[in-house]
């Protein structure tokens, strides 16, 4: 990699384009690396957690959920937004329980991913959850989903065959596959 | 997987929350699977293409780019938005040339990913590009980036070590790794 050049874009002024119930859209005037000015538009997001719940039999707990922006049902790992002031690990534990009914005894942070760096400040924290025990799930209002489980290799095949296209799910599977390959020698 | 239940959410009415130069934010009133009503807010996106440019020496062509929503420089694969009416493969060829200066003789579609299914309708098409020849790049106005290349395994390590966190880059590497492992036996 060659000598770093400064690619930083500096905020001149920031305006709110829209403030919805869930989405806030911003439009900032920025100074670009060559000294010229431009605009950047983006969405504010509180961050989220995605969980790779690995059952004792080696299967992963997945969900099937209708995603309105794409008018399509997706196969995803459990995930959810971080509540204000909430510890990230607690978000993971809360969402896993709420969405799937499972409680996990062991949590390993696998990393983070940024789903949409062009127009969102969202960061997604990725956890592997093992030592799963079934409990009682409790969905949020307006949340509808199906829970099922599939073998780990079958999940990887579903990515390769285009049955799983959700970015948080694919990146979490990527990191989990490498992590498990490392610890299993 | 148990018997499918209908998770579809139906549009009752659609409103534009904000219309920026780049972003359009929508707020739709929807009928939920249990018959109740709710709102869904999301961003419209024309779709994009991400390219895995594999050099004859086995290295991948990467970029370093400042992404304003996160005020951070990212390591990414070349990518860009689909122009109106543009064929997706042409988007890939155009963006690879504009951003990196490379022309590729062989293009294989590896699949698609959805970066942000909760609040964007964006779909990203993923291509592997080989038979690369250096040409002349030409960045868009307001676009600043550095181009460099790194070995394939080193790229995978950068994901594992959190140096690459961009979702389109990670999902494209995931699919390329599996594809190349299959064709190389």
Task: Walk me through the structure.
Two copies of one chain form a homodimer. Chain A is α+β, with helices and mostly antiparallel strands and 185 residues long. Helix content of chain A is 21%, strand content 43%. The first copy, chain A, contains three helices and ten strands. Chain A has a four-stranded mixed beta sheet with strand order 7-4-9-8, with helices on both faces. Chain A has a three-stranded antiparallel beta sheet with strand order 1-2-3, with no helix packed on it. In chain A, strand 5 (59-67) and strand 6 form a beta hairpin. In chain A, helix 2 (152-160) packs across helix 3 (167-183). The longest helix of chain A has 17 residues, at 167-183.
| Strand residue content of chain A | 35-45%
Question: Which outline of chain A best applies?
Answer: globular
Oligomer: homodimer
Number of helices of chain A: 3
Strand line-up of the largest beta sheet of chain A: 7-4-9-8
Distance between the termini of chain A: 31 Å
Give the H and E element order of chain A: EEEEEEEHEEEHH
Uncertain regions spanning at least 5 consecutive residues of chain A:
none
Averaging pLDDT over every residue of chain A, what do you get? 94
The residue fraction in helices of chain A comes out at 10-25%
Largest sheet of chain A: 4 strands, mixed
**How big is the Rg of chain A?**
19 Å
- Find the structural class of chain A using helix and strand composition: alpha+beta
Largest interface (CB within 8 Å) is between:
A-B, 74 and 74 residues
Let me know the number of strands of chain A: 10
